[in-house]
Amino acid sequence: MCPGLSAFLFTSCIFGGIIRPLLYRPFNNYTAYSLLRWQIPGLIILFFVLLPARSLAQYDTLLHKPYAKKVLGVHAMYKDLIDIGDSARRVEKAAEIKSFARRHKDRGLELEIELFLVFWNAFYQQQPKDVSLRKLTALVGLVSKENIDFLRARALRALAEFYWKYEGNYEQAFEQYLLLDKELASARADAYPEMARDLMQIGEAYYFFQDYSVAKKYFKRAIALPETAFNTMVLNAARNNLGLCFQQENELDSADHYFNEVRKTRFPEAEVWKRIATGNLGTDNYLRKQFDKAIPLLETDFNGSVTENDYGCAAGAAILLADIFRDRGNMELAGTFIAHAQTYIMKAEQPDRLRLLYPVMSKWYAAAGDAERSKQYVDSSIAAFNRYNEKFSALKVLRAQQKVDRQREELQLSAFTLERQRKVAERNLLILLLLILCIAIVLIYFIQKKKQLAKDFKLQAATQELELARANLNRFTESILEKNKLIEQLQNRNPEKDKTTLFQQLQQSTILTEDDWQSFQVLFDKAYPGFILRVKEKQSELSTGELRYFVLARLNLSTKEMAAMLGVSPNAIQVMRHRIRKKLSLADHAALDEMIKNI
């Protein structure tokens, strides 16, 4: 059996170019994925060494080109950098290319060099893991802001690979793969030639943990893309892996279909996949116990694997052929293939295959009549299977624990975020309340100030009006008094005959007519607001004349002055005062004056 997960060598986490696969075919998914993860680095270098070198001037062809049109040139540029043995010189060369890109204002090429340096230092320069992880994470953030030439997808792929290979943090790797999948959803295959490569790598991660249903979805998405010389290796790997998924699920007819699809490929670059698929078809027939069909297919795979130094695949085919020939009674040929299997397992450094070889050896020794050796290999088989299961179970437990830890971290982060949002909300609410309070205080201040100004203005106006009214009233009163004095002087100084006409004129102006009284009352009300109304309310029995007495008394006029203003004799004023005092039941004139003053 030859799983394609380990048979196909991808150029790197960043690049998706074409390269001859490593010929290694373990029987199980664990060792399949392990070799892919641990033998990539050295062979990636071999890939780049095979590409022609270019001078700095030759990078002109990369300037301002879509990624699909410059992907091979980018690979060649990486090869130039990898060819430099001295790390300081490599950094210097990278700086020259970055400067070249900057001069030509090609941000994509500039970031391409940044991607290479971060990737190279993380995977091949024995840089501390925490430094590598920090730089890879920062790179993802950088290229996410300027997603040129699908750099975000390629950086996510590199970060996922680092989590998987160096950190052993499978859950974090899956998280990056899911982000990568989102990137692919918005990309076009013709614009991004490495899309099939990315889908394959995500599918491999699910295959590794035996989640075949999900793995198949990604492999099918990959093989649905148009096949070209650039991606034929990836697509045939996807077809082969689909066959392996169905083989693991014991759906052998479906497995045959995809293995045969690989054998039909028209691209010579994928010739090695035809041998791999041939071996896997042999495995299907072995599982069906159709040994006549299985033998030629497995022998083709075995011989091709030996020729191409794919020792793991050679060991896998040898184990199955040994079991078939043992079943057919050809003990010698079965023993030969057992010996081949042992040799190639050692050369491939894949001890996990022993769990598949030991049961065959136990049956071979039993058939040869060596019960003791047969029993020993039964025990060895059990021990080998236990070691493998413990190893794989430990990985599953580790992933489960990582998942729990990741969920706990997310919960803690969510709790922290919620708490921070709560505090921010409380702070904002407090600020808002303070702002509202300040606005309210300012508004209240201005409203009160406006009211106070209006009140002050009104009071000032009222005061001025009152002062004016009193001044007018005083002038009116003084005018009357002056006229009364003038009448007296004339009466005392001039003969009766001469002063009659003048006296009558002055008296007419002195005696208050009804109109005079109304004018006087208006002035009085302004000087003493509400006095007349209060007198009417408190002493409603007073006559009009008596009310006028109250008004003149409030002005502190003498009896003589009152008589002059009302056009009566002083004695009439005294009689009126006496009548008012009796009507109001007041003891004396002083009591009347005090009452008028207090109204």
TrEMBL record:
TPR repeats lie at residues 196-229. PROSITE patterns: TPR. The keyword Transmembrane helix applies. GO terms for biological process: regulation of DNA-templated transcription. Residues 459-493 form a coiled coil. It comes from the Bacteria. This is Uncharacterized protein.
